[in-house]
Amino acid sequence: MKRAILPLVYAVCLTAAVPTPESHFGHPMGVDRKLLDWSKVVSYFQLLAQNSDRIRFDELGKTTEGRPFIAATIAAPETLRNLDKYREIQAKLADPRTIDDAQAAKLSAEGKTVVLITCSIHSTEVASTMTAVEFAYKLLTDDKPKFQTILQNTIFLLVPSLNPDGVDLVTQWYRKTLGTAHEGVGPPELYQKYVGHDNNRDWYMFSQAETRIAISKLHNVWHPHIVYDVHQQGSYSSRMFVPPWMDPIDPNIDPIIAQLCNAIGSGMASDLTAAGKTGVAINAMYDFWTPGRHYQSYHGGARILSESASARLATPIRVRPEELNQVAAGYSPRERSWNHLEPWGGGEWRLRDIMDDQLIAFESCLFQAAVRREDLLKGFYQIGKRAVQRTIPSAFVIPAAQRDPGAARKLLETLSFGQVEIDRAAQPFTAGGKQYAAGSYIIRIQEPYSSFAKRLLVRQNYPDLRQYPGGPPKRPYDVTAHTLPMLMGVAVDTIPRAFSAEGIRADQFVFTSVSHGNALSGSDTDSWRMLNRSLQAGRRVWRNMTTGDFYLDAAPAGVDARAVRQPRIGVYKSFVPTMDEGWTRWILEQFGFKYTSVVNSDLSHANLRERFDVIVFPSQRSEAIHQGHKQGSMPEEFTGGLGEVGAEALKQFAAKGGALIFLNDSSDYALDYLGAGVKDTLKGISNREFYAPGSLLSVKLELHPLTLGLPKEIAVWFENGPAFEITGRERAIAVYPENHVLASGWLLGEKHLVRRAAIVDVPVGAGHIILFGTRPQYRAQSYQAFKLFFNSLLYFE
Question: CATH assignment of 2-387?
């Protein structure tokens, strides 16, 4: 009798030792006007691991700003003691080439469902980190049958925040404004140092430290069957969205995965409704198209998203029924429909309400994963098996000789990081009727993650979806094109039929340049890193004004070459934060450019030319630059824009030989306030007539210092930007062709672009205004257009 009681007594004592969230943080989770410090979140999960045998704590790396990036692994104690065994099972099921069906069935019976839940990638969406804290405590201390089923059948990987830096930034800002008229407004800076909200668009380029940690330490190690990413949305639509997703669904996502998303999301919606929660929407607002938002869908797992209605950070709000949106994508928040069965009628909405919904969703997702454990493992194996049995196309070949070796290397490094298998040809071979040199690279379609490679290497054809026949377009949730060879300027050939080639698996990638002599090639993006290192080391550099090549120390005789000096670059940083500004800083740093962030007060002086050669304005609305935050909407020091004084100072800067560079939307500021003489021909045109919400468009490049090192025709990134009509002595640098403008994605109204300029040089006195109707540094992807941007940084008198 005593022997039977002792284990129970031990378990009760162990549970009793687990600290409550309130005892650690000094308040319950979800109380009004309380946010968390990241250090306290980290120490709480450390305490949980010290006091419970159901959880393991890991610091996986450091964030962009040096904070701990952590994950908790929660499961039954016996499972945690045998994690290596379950990782091995997952690895075998993830690669069906290593096992047969009988072995897969045996492993599926033995394995555990792996579920990864990630929180607060967007740091103003504050609830989910608190939900993670409270749910972890409940799972460790509450022995109710559902929790026991979850613990016994799953390996639960919990990331309390994908953006710890932002947790602290938002918390500190919220406390600063607490009790003022500005309580609950967002901070006047990006909540991730470089990319802000776009950190949730980095799941195939892997540019940011946090993305790389999550992929390399969690996704690629554990191959989760389900990844549930927890978000918040605006305050005036549904209370929570869960899948099924809206159309379109990327055809490269296995239908099994899409159906699993439908089933799991519908189960979560059912559980929320059964718990008395209203305002639950499915099959609305969010599509399943862009790989920038989900990685695991191309690696065998279901990607689940929930979006909860927001309060004002931790400050409650009251929503009147008439304030709810009348129409949202796919449903009306005010009306009952098949995908929004019980509308929320308005009322008070607070942080605790968000958490309560998320706690139900966490439990529902994990319980479904637990009770369907063996089926999910079998389905995971089948997804991989279908991938390795593909035959169309046969392969992709990346020729050894590339115009831009640096971009080609980066492309293959990106795919390799995403676990795509890449072979290097040991001998010359023929494929698709074309001869390839030894050293060319081969990506065969018969591998587990070929859908990831295919999604990024081929042209996208986004469907022409309308709100009703003949009506305006249905807005995609994100962008419509992701074709990396076009973005990066890399030659990649699609091989339709099988061929024979001897290859050696590669994880290091080297290309030969097809450009000029022994100079630093103007077509190689790597040359810009060497250029900046050389200039900063005090070396003299010359540039070939025909080829764009750089020469260190001396130029060859008889070559039209000009001395290059390091530009003094200012990057405009508005108190209305814009992600394009962060991407611009990130790109400049990656390629070794020195720059200074400049705010409104810095640009109101007449001596700008003494400080800077170039001032860059990232993509931002014209009025946000000119006016900024309105008086009273933010603390006084963060209100206002450049105003008339700033505009005049910028005109004088250009007249004295400086270069003003405007990217995408900010070009309108130059037209509105600086007198740039061109016309934006797309302004005022309805989206029924013209629409390009994020696509790759073809342009022809003119002879100009900005096009040095580039071919005559390229694809540029276009995202609802301007197009220009030349009206005076301006020079067109890039022009849309007469037909076949769309290279990848979705474009309505091609006729409005034909023969219009995408990039324009506007002379101003001794200087220039450069208008980009594109985003040449788009999300760290558009390596080919980087050179247009970098060339503009040298274009000053």
Answer: 3.40.630.10
